[in-house]
């Protein structure tokens, strides 16, 4: 079974509280979502492999470490996942970015795909799929189904990164994709009858883009 990691650094907890507040403006919500995503990168990339390399400092020749292994790709689930991309790119600027568009049918809560555009060599990359919300898990599962089945990305090369997870979504995602690690800034209490995370932060896409 894969890892489920809660990245609960004090700065992350503080910033998450700022955007849970319903009075947070679109500007604040957008900025702070990116800041949390950036802080999460430290933990999410902790196990990236390193290799030795020789360099010359101004004083001596020395053997040091640099990143090795697979190249990286970030795949936001549209729309709300876009709100995490800039923060992550700040720290890993060479990463390629692919997009998968999913929306939840408001009645059935079923995830419906409407867009996919991924780097050509996505199956050779370490892939970070990002979406602020893991609620029922439907959107994440559908996006990972697409990546593993159509684009042949190995599940062990995928990490799912969200801000707020519901227990129901974590269980569903782990059971559908047991080899995919999940990182969240918080594990909330439950889903309400409309599939929203409680206490949560509301509709992340609408709050990032100011569409409601
Ligand atoms: C939100 C969120 C996730 C999904 C989570 O997207 O960004 O993608 O809901 O819910 P689930 O785990 O129950 O699938 P939404 O469908 O509201 O689309 P949007 O990002 O375009 O607003
Ligand atoms: N999608 C959101 O944006 N928020 C939730 O709480 C659940 C799904």
List the keywords.
magnesium; two-stranded antiparallel sheet; binds 1-O-pyrophosphono-5-O-phosphono-alpha-D-ribofuranose; 212 residues; binds uracil; nucleotide-binding; EC 2.4.2.9; 33% helix; 6 helices; alpha/beta; 13 strands; single chain
Would you count the extended β strands for me? 13
Q: Indicate the CATH architecture.
A: 3-Layer(aba) Sandwich
What is the CATH third-level topology name? Rossmann fold
Distance between the termini: 39 Å
Mean pLDDT: 96
Q: What is the name of the CATH class?
A: Alpha Beta
**Largest β-sheet summary:** 9 strands, mixed
What ligand species are in this complex?
1-O-pyrophosphono-5-O-phosphono-alpha-D-ribofuranose, uracil
Series of H and E elements: EHHEEEHEEEEEHEHEEEH
How many separate domains make up the residues? 1
Query: Compute the gyration radius: what is it?
Result: 18 Å
Return residue spans where pLDDT drops below 50 for at least 5 consecutive residues.
Answer: none
Strand content: 25-35%
Structural class: alpha/beta
Shape: globular
Count of separate DSSP helical elements: 6
Helix content bin: 25-40%
GO biological process, one term: UMP salvage
Catalytic activity: UMP + diphosphate = 5-phospho-alpha-D-ribose 1-diphosphate + uracil
Pfam family, one: UPRTase
Protein name: Uracil phosphoribosyltransferase
Overview of the molecule:
The model has no long low-confidence stretch (mean pLDDT 96). The chain has one domain (4-8, 12-45, 69-209): Rossmann fold (3-Layer(aba) Sandwich), CATH 3.40.50. It is of the alpha/beta class and 212 residues long. It has helices spanning 10-20, 26-44, 82-91, 138-150, 167-176, 204-209; strands at 4-6, 50-56, 61-67, 72-78, 96-97, 99-104, 111-117, 126-130, 133-134, 158-165, 181-187, 190-191, 197-198. 33% of the residues lie in helices and 31% in strands. Helix 1 (10-20) runs antiparallel to helix 2 (26-44). The protein has 6 helices and 13 strands. The strands form 3 sheets. Strands 1, 4, 5, 6, 7, 8, 9, 10 and 11 form a 9-stranded mixed sheet that branches. It binds 1-O-pyrophosphono-5-O-phosphono-alpha-D-ribofuranose and uracil. Uracil (URA) binds at residues 80, 133, 135, 195-197, 200, 203-205.
